[in-house]
Specification:
The protein is 77% helix and 0% strand. The protein is mainly alpha-helical. The N terminus and C terminus are likely disordered.
Length: 445
């Protein structure tokens, strides 16, 4: 955070918000929080229903991974320009547009499924929905500092993660029950309905406008002097997108904590992007349980995320950013390895809760850090660059891990992937992440 303390012993990072009213006292904040919870409830339906729909139609875990991978590719491509859009247009309007688009896209699946079951529709719709999801996620990160005070960002992100966890706790279970009775397509239809309600609600959320400075803090003038660009509007537009994306990427590269954090998360994303598909396959194929059991396991996982929101501020205050982030992801790797060792559904649910507890701790910490250290006018581009770079290997990882599961089984793959997660995370102790306490650039330099 941009605070001028110079003591070698950092102040607890739970201090933000001290002496300020709780964001709960603001009805505008409560409305925003409720709408995000509603979206999370719907998302939890599609996160369960889409893999189940593919599994029902194809019976292949590799096909499940392919859909996940295609969605990831769409998100990565969108990340090249999502930050530019979020920094240049009305952010509230953009949130509404992305919700409406996803309502229409996901709503088309149950509508078509009333008459036919073309699996190609899933491959076409879900990646396009991923484009709008990426736009929404980048924009959502940028509006948080426009809704709450600067010192309340960590607390706000904890609330948001907690709301997601509460809303998602019953979502997978309900999705599994609806899928068992009415089919997975019906559960996807519930998701479409939540996007419609969210789009209307966001119209009433007040977001403070961000006035960009005369020039970005990157030292770029934006003047390339390329005469060819003047003759070709398409080339000029492409060059502009590239320049804006690199603006965010350069900020990440110059920050001694965000730079290694982006690299580490890129490797971890490669390893874990397909974990949800693996869990669903483990429950349905290896253990022989139905859709209700899938919802039970994934619901337990969301309860782990809820638990993370209750302790993240205290844990970061005592340990600092680096130790809490490294410790959390290390334990998540141990839990992932355990998935391959157990054949008990209750134990599998506990391990899923442990994984999401740990990744929740890491996610809240890393998101809050970016919001704290990034200038408001750059936040969209920095967030877009961050997510695009560290998600770049995700689709490949999802395809590779699910293909490996289809060939060698869940047990061996989970053991190997879990061990790799631990090794990658512990390597962070040798970087600026391991030395970071508050995230200020000077302390890790």
């Amino acid at each position: 955070m941009a605070r001028r303390g110079t003591s070698r012993r950092p102040q607890p990072t739970a201090e933000p918000g001290a002496g300020q009213p709780s964001p709960w006292s603001d009805p505008n904040y409560r409305l925003f929080l409720g709408l995000q919870g509603l979206s999370a409830l719907g998302d939890s339906f599609s996160h369960v229903a889409i893999p189940l729909l593919v599994l029902h139609q194809t019976g292949s875990v590799a096909q499940m991974g392919l859909v996940t991978g295609l969605t990831g590719v769409a998100s990565i491509v969108t990340g090249l320009f999502a930050g530019i859009v979020a920094d240049r247009v009305n952010r509230r309007r953009l949130l509404v547009v992305t919700d409406v688009a996803r309502c229409v896209l996901f709503g088309s699946i149950p509508l078509v499924w009333l008459f036919a079951t073309p699996i190609w529709l899933v491959y076409a719709v879900v990646p396009v929905a991923g484009v709008f999801a990426m736009l929404f996620q980048v924009t959502y990160v940028t509006v948080v500092p426009g809704i709450v005070a600067p010192g309340q960002i960590l607390q706000t992100n904890s609330h948001l993660y907690g709301t997601y966890a509460v809303a998602s706790a019953g979502g997978p279970m309900l999705a599994g029950l609806i899928a068992a009775v009415f089919g997975p397509a019906a559960a996807i239809g519930v998701d479409a309905g939540t996007f419609a309600v969210s789009a209307v609600g966001i119209l009433f959320v007040r977001i403070r406008a961000t006035r960009p400075p005369e020039a970005d803090d990157t030292g770029d003038t934006g003047d390339t002097g390329d005469a060819a660009d003047e003759r070709s509007p398409a080339a000029a537009g492409l060059r502009g997108v590239q320049r804006e994306f690199l603006t965010g990427a350069r900020f990440l590269w110059r920050h001694p904590v965000l730079r290694p954090l982006t690299v580490l998360l890129g490797l971890l994303t490669f390893l874990t992007y397909g974990v949800t598909d693996v869990l669903i396959y483990r429950v349905r194929h290896d253990l022989g349980h139905g859709e209700g059991a899938v919802g039970y396991v994934l619901t337990a996982g969301t309860l782990g995320t809820l638990a993370a929101t209750l302790v993240v501020a205290r844990l970061r205050g005592r340990l600092g950013f680096g130790p809490s982030w490294i410790g959390a992801h290390t334990l998540s790797g141990v839990a992932l390895a355990g998935v391959g060792l157990t054949g008990s559904l209750p134990v599998l649910a506990v391990l899923a809760a442990g994984m999401l507890f740990c990744t929740g701790l890491g996610g809240i910490n890393s998101m809050s850090l970016r919001q704290e250290v990034t200038p408001a006018h750059l936040l969209g581009r920095v967030t877009s660059s961050f997510w695009t770079i560290h998600n770049a290997l995700g689709p490949v990882g999802a395809a590779a891990v699910t293909a490996a599961v289809a060939t060698w089984g869940v047990r061996g793959v989970c053991l190997v992937v879990g061990a790799c997660v631990v090794a990658v995370t512990l390597s962070g102790t040798l970087t600026g992440v391991g030395r970071a306490r508050t995230g200020r650039a000077g302390e890790a330099a």
